[in-house]
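Q: Hi! First time doing this. I have a protein sequence and I read that you can turn it into a structure. Is that right? Here it is:
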Amino acid sequence: MNKRLTLIFLMCVGFTFYAQQDASIIPVDIQMSEVFKDDKRFTELSFSTEDNNGGIFIGRHYKDGCYIEHYDSNAKLIKNHDFELDNSKSNIHGGFLSGDDFCLLESTINKETKSLEYYVYKSPKNEFNFKKELLFSIPLKEVKKNMFSFGFFSGSSDNDILGAYEISRNKKFIAFTVDIKNADSETHRLFVFDNALNKVYETEFTRDLKDRKFILQNIDIDENDGTVYLLGKAFSREKKKKKDGGKYQFELFKINANSQNSLVFDSEENYVGSLTTVINQGKLFCIGFYSEKNDFRYKGLAYFDVDSKNMTLNNSVYSSFTEQFMFDKYGKDKEKELRNISFKNIFVTENNECIVNAEEFFIRSHYVATQYGGYWYYTYHFNDMISAKVGVNGDLQWARNINKKQSSDHYSSYLSYASTYYEGKTYLFLNGSDKIRKLRKDRLQFKDVRQRKSNLYVITLDQNGDFEYMKILDDKDSEVPFAVGNGIISANGKELTFQGRKGRKKQIMKISL
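A: Yes, that's right. Below is the predicted 3D structure, encoded as structure tokens:
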């Protein structure tokens, strides 16, 4: 039976150091599919896309294939399809709409032709009747071998992005980049297609540095004309001689069918451990975390404003974490840099401000000695949530730390959190236990949770960074726990989709704001 729960709750707990109304509400609409069972025990929610009628297509990976499902606006299953892969060297990377067709992207290794091939599978969106078309292929002898060690999205020994694809915000362009074997230079082959899967252009990017000296950070696409931006971290002889700051420079490349231009900038006396590009309504900037000590600590946020037309740097801003942020984390203002911060999501507001969501994530190794020689095991830690707002001029307007402590002896998508931004508010969704720990100075900590017994919470941050929270689903009211760590966010930020699982039992949850 399809379930629909409209939740408009009074906020159950308030932070006493905020000025709040007597009755704050967080309106959330939850729709759940029926509980069902797959033939495959382990599946992972991997992508979704709207069907333009209020429903969604979702893909759930299993070892040798992918379940493709179409749900209506009430989370009722319309149609499903078991998409089995032809061989173990194939991967499904995502789905999207092209006119009235639903499309899947696949990469595979063809042993007969000895090539890496990329395909699109097209089907009318109201039925699953896929037809296969070749997008492009590359001889295997040209592709870096370690690209296939862990799959299409894996990293290599130099932490490079070996192969990736990116879809522009308006879904008009799709760009692929493949790392090409070259002993002397960093080389990537780029393919850009429009939404109808017509090739817009193909080109090759080369940087005269050895591969391990150039680490590709990310790719992004201009939604107006399909121009691709590549951001890399380059370790040159000149920068190695720097007295202070990171011994590298960042290089941003603007690439289209007719030209390639670049911009070089460094972190000056600071260290920038992570950086990514953001494009929105013609505005281009890079944002990341920086330190004054080394690449593995973080003091605040770094912002670089770029003139995309002339490829010049307009401005750079380094903002240390706020006093409020340090108070959130430690209960007092403290001169300390953080470690182990990883990007979660970056959103651009209606006013071209930037919301950065991140998390403290790290892995600890443990050795157990036994009479047979011993063994290693690892603990995955998903700790505090970080949210910050950066103004249009790069200034840090606010930063908040929300205490969370989660760990597991395996990588689990039931830990971590999901986030979105919608109509002036940031939303964070996480699993947690009933026991929310009270810390000093009216702070709270969401404690560790067992996968099979967890409540679902939502935290909202308003335009000033003030936050509130509530429980939106008790584990007693649900047959399965929901994996928030790999939730899928809609293009407009209004909807999130989660998969729940307990054994072979599974359920899909759609949350609308």
